[in-house]
Amino acid sequence: MTLLQWILVFTLLGGVLSVLAAGLFLLLPEKTRSRLLPHAVSFAIGALLGAALLGLLPHALEGVQDGNYHGITATVLFGLFGFFVLEKLVLWRHCHHEDCEIHLPDLHDHDVHHAAAGTLILIGDGLHNFIDGILIGAAFLTDIHLGVVTALAVAAHEIPQEVGDFAILLHSGFSTSRAFLFNMLSSLTTIVGGVLAYYSLSTLQPLLPYVLAVAASSFIYVAVADLIPGLHKRAEFSATIKQMLLIGSGVGLIYLAHSTLH
């Protein structure tokens, strides 16, 4: 195979394999899935924060070539603000040009906020997968064996995060088929990143840290602004302990994946 063919095959595997493995969650009976979903959301919070603060941001800071660390943190800040505005646009779109506070009952308003969270997580995940594709492409340009190992590592460390993404999409009102379809489409940006790396890695290199910072800001925003407030609706001590343990588990799995595979 040519080098480009190697990159195409393994970016496809690196992105799609993790989604297929995480998609096993969708095969559970609906009653079981509904019972597990609130716990999966807690896990997703930990996975998102872990991916952003232990994976994406450190890589972004390491990749800065001119020592402009303030530029990375400023990108995260503006990213958070940008996703706030984007969520507002999603909410306004659901209002159908009427006053939401008047015509939307509390339950509908709650569902619309969850729908916005699903939209934002797909955007952030698409950016993250795009970066993974660039990393795989760059590894293949260095050595074919390194490329294969990198693609397998990407698939392995993405699985816990993809489980969290499925939980968020289901929590946002997506059907199982739509959650799988959109997550699969998001994973295909891995191929785009790999192809771009093959043709223009030297041009893209200075921009990668800032793309990583934007992806990190989307994960932080969804976890903190959209998901954590929902946990406070169950204030009993036992529920809080479970939430803390599951968030810690999400962070821990991401930490282990990054520390052992990178």
TrEMBL record:
* Places the protein is found: Membrane
**UniProt KW keywords:** Membrane, Transmembrane, Transmembrane helix
User: In what way does this protein cross or attach to the membrane?
Assistant: Multi-pass membrane protein
Signal sequence interval, chain numbering: none
Q: What is its main location?
A: membrane
Q: Which GO terms describe its cellular component?
A: membrane
Q: Which InterPro entries match?
A: ZIP (IPR003689)
Pfam families hit by this protein: Zip
Instruction: Please name the GO terms that the record assigns under molecular function.
Output: metal ion transmembrane transporter activity
Coiled-coil-forming residues are none
Sequence intervals crossing the membrane: 6-28, 40-61, 67-86, 180-201, 207-228, 240-258
What is the designated name of this protein? Zinc and cadmium transporter
